[in-house]
Amino acid sequence: MTTEELRYMRSLRIGRFLSGLAIAFLFVDAGMKLVKLPVVVETSTRLGYPDSTTVGIGILLLTCTILYVIPRTTALGAILLTAYLGGATATHVRVGDPFFFPVIVGCIVWGGLYLREPRLRALVPLRS
Predict the structure, then answer these.
(1) Which end of the chain is more exposed for a tag (fewer CB within 10 A), N or C?
(2) Displacement of CA 11 from its chain's centroid (Å)
């Protein structure tokens, strides 16, 4: 194998790991919202969202995450997850909570996609 092929394989592996990490977290978060765990309902209420919105938000997150998992729709999923996580960030800023976690998850979503998708790297080159 050439150096370029080895670099691509390493990038692909790291990208899949990062994407898998984000996907696992987002699926667990969506599942917790769908079953309306008491901690989720309590947190949502504290953040200003009524109890009745928990399942809808869980369905939205699940849908966005599924779109991110499917190779043909992964870019759309990443864009929608960015919007979702942006809303989460805004909510935390509004109530004065630390807001870095949704930002980190968004960076992991895009970092994983960037490392595993050569077309995205060609579109947004980090080096000349």
Answers:
(1) C
(2) 19
